[in-house]
Write a structure and sequence with these properties.
Largest interface: A-B, 25 and 15 residues
Bound molecules: adenosine-5'-diphosphate, magnesium ion
Helix content of chain A: 25-40%
Radius of gyration of chain A: 18 Å
CATH superfamily of chain A: P-loop containing nucleotide triphosphate hydrolases
Number of strands of chain B: 0
Structural class of chain A: alpha/beta
Largest sheet of chain A: 6 strands, mixed
Strand content of chain B: under 5%
CATH class of chain A: Alpha Beta
Number of domains of chain A: 1
Largest sheet of chain B: none
Distance between the termini of chain A: 45 Å
CATH topology of chain A: Rossmann fold
Number of helices of chain A: 9
Helix content of chain B: over 70%
Strand order of the largest sheet of chain A: 6-7-8-3-9-10
Shape of chain B: elongated
Strand content of chain A: 25-35%
Oligomer: heterodimer
Radius of gyration of chain B: 23 Å
Order of helices and strands of chain B: HHHHHHHHH
Number of strands of chain A: 10
Number of domains of chain B: 1
């Protein structure tokens, strides 16, 4: 059942983070993060390189363990659940990696089939093929089905990576720098795809970026990460009209004024 | 400014137990031990990934087959050829099949197969898992609810553990074939008397010890290269290092294991 359109339900918090801390040795990366993402909402996390944006979403997906704090995803405390429960939860989370992370040893078709064949064993061969074709169609790359990842462009790889997560119909999407390293036209296509996924499947997403165009188009709400904490939060206009000096250089670089 | 920071450095207490390099070595050995522990815990728990084990075994076998074939046959010929002069001094060339068979089955086949597989397969696994690690493919597998340790590591370690003994037996056969070709050409020994002569002095312990060695070598190659690949850091440079370290470490351990296993099995000889 597809309900097109924006339906943000502010009573349902799908990702709730409280006082999250994470260090790597002496490197104290996250220093007390609080974040709520509501049902159907796209939240953009802005921040310079190395501020811990990737670390944050890897903690949400259970790839890294936090040192302190609680992370509640779809009603599960990711730090407390068993590995089996975590696997079940991960089926409802889509993760688009910074460098797409397509399996080099598999074709596009095999990449897309991988999560399905392993987690939905009841599906017939025909149903799997149908799901693959549908997911490829959703990202507009049906013609690449028999190609190898190495033969694709950066933008195509990104979209295939997104298709591979969409195939499991996730409730939450995590995008790690979806437009990094892409030309403006391809970036725009990815931005539109992210928006389309939100509206079509009513997913909630966290989009990590330092591309303000991407932030403006895809985000319903922005949070700015600096020195391990969120220093600003609100709509694009609210954040950038705050007159915060720390954000000025960000804005100036993206929109030469 | 500069002076001040120097002073701070000097005041810091000694941070290493022995020396930086040796500490790092022991920490590495400790985490290799943990990695092995994780393997033995994972290997007996479902899901078993049979399909992937077969696929990896096929890959290990096929990748090494041409090289093993060539090396085996040539080793047989060359070893026979080089041993002949010393035996003929005593007029004992009739002992050649027996000498060659002992050398091949007891020592050459397991060791050469182990070293070749370490070079060919070890570097391959190290580089493959290493690049999967640095391009986040291992993370991607984990978030699509597939245990990457089981899917990537357990399958490859089992594949090398199963395949190296088979490759060793295959190599022994080819080396013996090479030896026969040489002996037949020079001494006109018949196939039957070559076999009778050759296997006269081979007993069960010889074959058992070689198979045991190969199993240990295969496991070593698999676990070391998976460990190196799975823990790769620092981008593409790290991938090269993982491949390289896999081979060096596996070869080093193979020599040590060779000595230890020979010592142990010798106690059981009559
Ligand atoms: N697995 C790890 N081990 C050690 N340090 C890490 C690890 N992952 C990230 N870091 C460190 O955490 C900091 C934040 O990294 P990251 O989240 O990737 O930044 P970004 O905001 O650019 O995505 C960096 O200093 C990085 O070196
Ligand atoms: Mg990052």
């Amino acid at each position: 059942m597809i309900k097109e359109g924006l339906h943000i339900d502010r009573t349902k918090c799908v990702i709730c983070i409280r006082d999250l801390h994470k260090s790597f040795g002496p490197n104290h990366v996250l220093r007390g993060i609080d974040l709520d993402v509501y049902q159907g909402e796209n939240v953009v996390v802005l921040g310079r390189s190395g501020t811990g944006k990737s670390v944050l979403i890897k903690i949400i997906a259970g790839l890294l363990k936090p040192d302190k704090g609680t992370v509640n995803v779809l009603g599960n405390d990711v730090t407390a659940i068993s590995y089996r429960e975590l696997e079940q939860l991960r089926l409802r989370i889509g993760f688009s990696f910074q460098n797409s992370a397509l399996y080099d040893s598999m074709t596009v078709r095999e990449n897309l089939e991988f999560p399905l064949l392993r987690n939905s064993k009841h599906l017939s061969r025909g149903q799997v093929t149908e799901a693959v074709e549908k997911a490829l169609d959703a990202v507009g790359l049906s013609q690449t089905i028999n190609q190898w990842p190495a033969e694709l462009s950066g933008g195509q790889r990104k979209r295939i990576g997104i298709a591979r997560t969409l195939i499991m119909q996730p409730a939450i999407m995590l995008y790690d720098e979806p437009t990094a390293g892409l030309d403006p036209i391809t970036s725009m296509e990815i931005n539109e795809l992210i928006k389309e996924v939100q509206l079509k499947f009513n997913t909630s997403s966290i989009i990590i970026t330092h591309d303000l165009t991407c932030a403006k188009i895809t985000g319903d709400r922005l949070a700015v990460l600096l020195d391990g904490r969120f220093v600003q939060e609100g709509s694009f206009e609210q954040v950038f009209s705050s007159g915060d000096e720390r954000l000025k250089s960000f804005y100036d670089y993206n929109f030469i004024t | 400014m500069h002076d001040a920071s120097m002073k701070v450095k000097q005041k810091q207490p000694r941070r290493y137990v022995i020396s930086q390099k040796l500490d790092a070595f022991f920490i590495d050995m400790y985490s290799l031990g943990q990695f092995m522990g994780r393997f033995f815990r994972a290997v007996f728990l479902p899901p078993y990934e049979f399909k992937e084990i077969i696929k990896q075994s096929y890959a290990v076998g096929v990748k090494s087959l041409p090289l093993i074939t060539l090396t085996g046959f040539i080793t047989g010929i060359v070893f026979t050829k080089q041993s002949r002069p010393s035996l003929s001094e005593f007029g004992a060339t009739s002992w050649l099949p027996s000498l060659v068979a002992i050398a091949i089955i007891r020592a050459l086949a397991p060791l050469v197969t182990g070293l070749i597989t370490a070079g060919k397969v070890g570097s391959n696994i190290g580089a493959e898992l290493g690049s999967m690690k640095v391009t986040e493919q291992i993370d991607a597998m984990e978030v699509s609810a597939t245990n990457p340790f089981k899917f990537l590591v357990v399958t490859r370690v089992l594949a090398t553990t199963f395949m190296v003994p088979l490759l060793m037996l295959y190599m022994a056969l080819l080396a013996l074939a090479g030896a026969f070709v040489n002996v037949h050409a020079n001494e006109q020994t018949s196939f039957v008397s070559f076999i009778e002569n050759g296997f006269h002095s081979i007993n069960f312990i010889d074959i058992f010890s070689s198979v045991l060695k190969s199993i240990v070598f295969g496991f070593t190659i698999g676990i070391i290269s998976c460990y190196q690949g799975y823990n790769t850091t620092q981008g593409t440079q790290g991938v090269g290092r993982a491949a390289n370290t896999s081979v060096v470490m596996a070869m080093f351990l193979i020599f040590i294991e060779e000595i230890v296993i020979v010592q142990i099995t010798n106690w059981f000889r009559p």
